[in-house]
Amino acid sequence: MLNKRQEKIILLLDDSKSWITGKEISRLMNVSDRTIRSDIDTINRYYNKTLIESNLRSGYRINQEVLVTLPIELNTVIPQTPEERCIYIIQELMFEKSEINLLDLQDQVFISGYSIDNDIKRIKKMLEPYDDIKLVRSRNYIHLEGSEQSKRQLYKELLSQETQGNFLNLNRLSSMFQDFDLLKVKKELEDVLNHYNYHVREMSMPMLMIHVGIAVERMLRYNYIETSRSIPQLQEHKEYLIAKEFFERLSKRIRIEVVDDEADLQPRCPVVTIMGHVDHGKTTLLDTIRKSAVVDGEFGGITQHIGAYQVEVNGKKVTFLDTPGHEAFTAMRARGAQVTDIVIIVVAADDGVMPQTKEAIDHAKAAGVPIVVAINKIDKEGADPERIKAEMAEEGLLPEEWGGDTVYCEISAKKKIGIEELLETLTVVAELADLKANPNRYAYGSVVEGKLDKGRGAVATLLVENGTLRASDPIVVGAAYGRVRQMLDDKGRVIKEALPGTPVEITGLNEVPVAGDKFMVFETEKQARSVGETRMKAKIEKDRNSGAALSLDDLYSQIKEGQIIDLNIIVKADVQGTAEAVKASLEKIDVDGVRVNVIRSTVGAISESDVILASASQAIIYGFNVRPDAKVRSKAEEENVEIRLHNVIYKMVEEIETAMKGMLAPEYHEVVTGQAEIRQVIKASKVGNIAGCYVTDGSIKRNSGIRLIRDGIVVYEGKLASLRRFKDDVKEVNSGFECGLNIENYNDIKEGDIIEGYVMEEVEKK
Fold first, then answer.
1. Looking at the 3D structure of the chain, how many domains does it have?
2. What domain range includes position 63?
3. In terms of DSSP bridges, do strands 732-734 and 688-701 run parallel, antiparallel, or are they unpaired?
4. Which terminus of the chain is less hemmed in, N or C, by CB atoms within 10 Å?
5. Taking the complete model, does pTM exceed 0.70, yes or no?
């Protein structure tokens, strides 16, 4: 379907009856030469004939022989009468968020300034029946003021008038909406109507599509109507369910987006995702690139979260996403591929193509992005880059030197060999991709990670895909909403704005968003709150329904049948992405006769409500890098609920698999000896920070292992350097007594932190 501008080009060339240069057409249409070339290609493809001829020197002209064979109604494109022009001008005002330049408008409709002035007078008269809509003029600019509801009503009446006489022609109606395909929207609506066995008369469909088209058009431009207070009364009606499912489908499947004008686009930095198998050197490569120590902070040497970092390569910024390689993080890698421009697949030269390597290739191919293969560890004994190339070629990644189109770089991330060549390759691939975005619009993008911080509340790592994100912007992130209170870059520095392709960490949301969610900036906080609350209600309703079905109906029926034994599990993690990955890993466990049900997977410390749910559903609680306090642990003992704690996912999976197979026989069992609360921090120059503590539960022993817990989340694990009562060194301090202690090689302690002591006791095998 051709849009208005493309139809206008046909009319312009037909009127001229001669050659017109591309520059002249672009001036009249107020778009770039590139856009004109693209439009002309679209026109010729649409009719499957060379309707518009091109010449390098002369420009473009209509092929009259082809024109007479095509059913083109050109007289409906450009407004001819004053009434048609007024309708056209109001429509253009509807499309724009801000003002319209009258000089540009003159060029669009091919009339004088005097005619424009008369048209403005006519429009003001047309708007008189609408009390809260008025046309405002400021010198050479005009704009509409009024409520969104009244604007939509006006828009609907104008389109109804314009389609009179050709009312049933949905192709004609579709051309009035330039930012999306109305016919696709119509098909999606018909599918939903058929699903609910709901009939709409054919005569009524055009008017219904006008309503739908206007709603979608306005929402694409961030113009929302506040949710009606009568919604609760409507929820039981079939029409409400149809509308709800229709717009859910529309947002997920059709992926309608506002298309930016070519003239508004500016070059942006590329987003590069590093993928590959576990322990093939992805994080080490990134560590070498950004010259930092990312690896040191990882449990078991495995990346647990997506990291987003920005570095400068040859004076140009490049954003890197580091995705975990372990199979537990399939969903996280998939999200990384969806938001990236270039994928680096790291393969160890001494190992080869592994399952996660193949999976990464599939994700990259599905995303349709350029792939660069980095053959790592070429300095190691047994490295065979040629063998790696052969194996990768079997997966469809044929090297350039073999006649393919995949670039291979041989590197050693640890020895810093080939890194410069890899970076140069990335810049070349990025330049060829011609990556652009519009910084002068409201920002939107994806959530890389979400977590709960004690001091800052809900924290989200975002990747800005388009537009500019600014501090204090009203924002909706999945089902969360708020204002951007503080924005940090990847180095922890406070920034005021973030351009397209930039990763940032923000605070100010009402809850922790889910990794992979989309975010969008709104014009007002009221709009953001309305959208966020609606999404939250839907999410709560969905969770409630799914939880009830799983823990009661489904569980009871299966146990009654005696066919499957269900192992119910509650997952608590420190960040959202990890919770999601843990849940996915557990649900993939396949043992005959046993099924894993993750009935809750959330972020934050283990709470009493988790224990109560576990007791009611006979579930085991698995904590990933979080700890229960003494009160929660006591409640768990009271309810006979088992709490198991881990910080490496594959160990957790192995433990459960072993237990499900009836082979769980651990040699050692962790016993928590007690907890102490830090009530004072004393700084000592020679020994570091000393914690003045009060033992609240059990006892703290000098030779036991300890954990530093902040807001239920494990901050550090280690040993005590000293334990004292007054000036005396002691081996143990019991509950109800004060003590002073110093943590070995660690000084980041705060008042209110919890010190948990534990010992590993050998368990006799039965």
1. 5
2. 4-76
3. antiparallel
4. C
5. no
